[in-house]
């Protein structure tokens, strides 16, 4: 019952946040000095949904959003915004979801190992500075470095996606796409693993200083049992960080995508802003806001299932 109340409360909070964010997404473009938005009549006004009183426009916007009707792009006139966003989002999902999940798992395992090993051992003195060096440099810098080096010697394509073949389900296209995807994916896993390892190590060290660990030591618990308890309890903060990082999947990264020649959400948003595509900008932000909140709520559900302490405080 407590868990159900806690999740219902979190769902209502996320819904309230969604309504506030969507309201800003609706009003901010209308406050901008864009002539097409303020035109009182005409076909463009009907396409933009700016006819009628403001409250009617807002209700119509919410209704269309709930039915995934995001309007028509002005930059690529005649193309539905939902189609453009879905096409760009699938590229980010294919690249960023595996990179995040694989790097999170590897970082969690490495961080637990470093955090539970004896202090000041040689491997930690070497590993920790290297991990800080790897994770401190921007991931697009590593992507640019690896791409330039490996493509110059013919080991990797210079871009993250194939432009020579029409997308299809054929084995030829899939193999070519994976060949182009390998370097961006490996680069992200390389950099993100360093970040997750450092976070996991700090979380484990914090748990080792907890009173329950001291109590278990006084009772004479075996190291393997205490390590298992610390491992489980240290995972909560990492899952929270994972929820925040999953927002990258929804919003993409313009710099990374520009470096890799990757047609994701970041590049699409840049083109929409550059071409004053009011409908496309509004549609991208609506989808990004919704996905980020849904992903965060999913992580909350997972945390409640894995951490009994959250059930007691809910």
Describe the structure in your own words:
The protein is mainly alpha-helical. It contains 16 helices and no strands. It has helices at 2-31, 35-38, 43-48, 54-66, 81-116, 122-136, 139-152, 171-208, 211-219, 223-233, 235-245, 247-251, 254-260, 265-274, 278-306, 308-313. Helix 1 (2-31) runs antiparallel to helix 15 (278-306) and helix 7 (139-152) packs parallel to helix 13. The chain is flat and about 75 Å long. The N and C termini lie close together (10 Å). The mean pLDDT is 77.
- Major β-sheet, in short? none
Along the chain, the helix and strand elements come as: HHHHHHHHHHHHHHHH
- Number of DSSP strands? 0
Low-confidence stretches: none
Shape: flat
- What is the rounded Rg? 24 Å
Global mean pLDDT: 77
Proportion in β-strands:
under 5%
As a percent range, the share of helical residues equals over 70%
Q: Counting H and I runs of at least 4 residues, what is the number of helices? A: 16
Question: What is the structural class?
Answer: mainly alpha
């Amino acid at each position: 019952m407590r868990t159900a109340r806690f999740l219902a409360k979190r769902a209502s909070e996320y819904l309230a946040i969604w309504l506030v964010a969507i309201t800003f997404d609706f009003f901010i473009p209308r406050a901008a000095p864009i002539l097409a938005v303020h035109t009182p009549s005409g076909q463009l006004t009907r396409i933009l949904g700016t006819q009628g009183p403001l409250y009617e426009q807002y209700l119509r916007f919410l209704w269309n959003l709930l039915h995934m009707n995001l309007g028509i792009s002005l930059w690529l006139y005649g193309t539905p915004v939902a189609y453009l966003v879905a096409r760009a989002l699938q590229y980010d999902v294919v690249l960023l979801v595996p990179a995040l999940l694989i790097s999170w798992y590897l970082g969690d395992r490495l961080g637990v190992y470093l955090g539970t090993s004896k202090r000041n051992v040689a491997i930690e003195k070497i590993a920790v500075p290297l991990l800080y060096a790897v994770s401190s440099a921007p991931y697009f810098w590593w992507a640019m470095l690896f791409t330039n080096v490996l493509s110059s010697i013919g080991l990797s394509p210079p871009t993250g996606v194939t432009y020579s073949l029409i997308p299809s389900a054929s084995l030829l296209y899939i193999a070519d796409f994976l060949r182009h995807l390998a370097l961006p994916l490996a680069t992200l896993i390389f950099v993100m693993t360093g970040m997750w390892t450092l976070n996991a190590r700090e979380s484990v060290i914090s748990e080792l200083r907890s009173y329950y660990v001291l109590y278990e030591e006084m009772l004479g618990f075996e190291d393997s049992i205490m390590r298992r308890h610390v491992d489980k309890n240290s995972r909560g903060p990492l899952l929270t960080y994972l929820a925040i990082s999953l927002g990258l999947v929804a919003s993409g990264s313009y710099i990374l995508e520009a470096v890799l020649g990757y047609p994701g959400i970041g590049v699409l948003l840049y083109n929409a802003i550059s071409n004053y595509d009011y409908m496309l900008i509004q549609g991208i932000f609506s989808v990004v806001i919704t996905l980020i909140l849904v992903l965060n709520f999913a992580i909350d559900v997972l945390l409640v299932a894995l951490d009994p302490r959250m059930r007691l405080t809910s």
